[in-house]
Specification:
Helix content is about 35%, strand content about 15%. The chain has helices at about 10-20, 40-45, 60-70, 110-115, 135-149, and strands at about 1-5, 25-30, 55, 70-75, 85, 95-100, 120. The longest helix is centred in the last third of the chain and has 16 residues, at about 135-149. The chain starts with a strand and ends with a helix.
């Protein structure tokens, strides 16, 4: 779930990621730009036409429903209690996973974090403590794929 992203180019990139990784559905939530938009179209390279996506007006309600239906909800966010994706155990490989990635400037809102089963992060070994949201999401998606296959 891409929550409150600002840059349509990042949205286009996540469509390409979803296509490459075989993500079942992309969730565009809050104020995240949605197709059709030139910035999305240019970066997505036509994947916005083939990747299933849903526009989620109320991410809190969506996550609550997903949780009730048994989905594992993960927030890609560095917190005091987040787990490195390297160390994450996924006990049920067939369980649906909803992975949240928030705005590059503000992260994931507290009300959404409260609905997550866990916060996960990518270890940061350099001087910077963050990376582009689509780069981080790409690494996270593939690390999760490695764990469920």
């Amino acid at each position: 779930m891409c929550v409150d992203w600002k840059d349509p180019r990042n949205v286009g990139s996540v469509f390409r990621l979803a296509d490459a990784a075989g993500v079942s559905k992309l969730l565009l939530a809050g104020t995240t730009p949605t197709p059709p938009q030139p910035g999305i179209r240019k970066t997505a390279r036509s994947t916005e036409r083939s990747v299933p996506y849903e526009v989620v007006k109320d991410p809190v309600a969506y996550l609550a429903r997903s949780r009730q239906s048994g989905a594992l909800i993960l927030a890609l966010e560095i917190t005091d209690q987040s787990t490195s994706l390297f160390d994450l155990d996924l006990p049920e490989p067939d369980r649906e996973i909803v992975l949240l990635a928030g705005s590059e400037s503000t992260g994931i809102a507290g009300e959404l974090l409260a609905l997550c089963d866990a916060a996960v992060h990518l270890p940061m070994y350099g001087q910077n403590t963050s990376m582009n949201v689509t780069v981080a999401l790409g690494a996270a998606v593939y690390l999760i794929l490695m764990k469920v296959q």
